[in-house]
């Protein structure tokens, strides 16, 4: 994992998702990132790339709800106009975040790093911002 911090935009995988979303902002891309984690979480192991993309998608939705993370990339601001958030999507985002926190390669990497508690606090904050 190419990470330089424990926030959700501080890794290569999330910034790849941000780049793709900035180039082609769509609600479908956010839904797809969340659905991948939700579906895998029920039956398969969630890889770090999928987990990071889902957390970035959830952060984008939180920003659209006027609750952005402190490190929300400014280049994403114009792309927010392309999406509308509804209660169903908020619920999916919360479910995806919970699944990543519960069991994923990303969660395991943070546990191994010794910074799990800080990372969990960030995810807890994200869950609150998605309400």
Outline the structure in words.
With 131 residues, the chain is mainly alpha-helical. The chain has one domain. The protein has six helices and no strands. α2 crosses α4. The radius of gyration is 13 Å and the shape is globular. It starts with 11 loop residues before the first helix and ends with a helix.
Which characteristics define this entry?
131 residues, mainly alpha, 6 helices
Strand content: under 5%
- The termini sit apart by 29 Å
Question: Over the alpha carbons, how many angstroms does the gyration radius reach?
Answer: 13 Å
Main beta-sheet strand count, sense and barrel state: none
Shape: globular
Order of helices and strands: HHHHHH
Q: How many domains would you count in the coordinates?
A: 1
Segments where pLDDT lies below 50 for 5+ residues? none
Output the number of helix runs. Answer: 6
Helix content: 55-70%
Could you say which structural class the secondary elements and strand pairing correspond to? mainly alpha
Number of strands: 0
Average residue pLDDT: 94
């Amino acid at each position: 994992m190419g990470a330089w911090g424990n926030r959700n935009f501080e890794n290569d995988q999330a910034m790849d998702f941000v780049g793709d979303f900035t180039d082609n902002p769509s609600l479908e891309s956010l839904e797809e990132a969340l659905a991948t984690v939700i579906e895998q979480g029920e039956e398969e192991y969630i890889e770090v790339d999928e987990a990071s993309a889902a957390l970035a998608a959830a952060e984008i939705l939180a920003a659209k709800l006027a609750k952005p993370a402190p490190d929300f990339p400014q280049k994403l601001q114009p792309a927010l106009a392309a999406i509308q958030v509804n209660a169903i999507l908020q619920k999916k985002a919360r479910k995806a975040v919970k699944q990543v926190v519960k069991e994923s390669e990303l969660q395991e990497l943070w546990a191994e790093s010794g910074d799990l508690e800080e990372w969990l606090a960030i995810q807890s904050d994200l869950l609150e911002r998605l309400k």
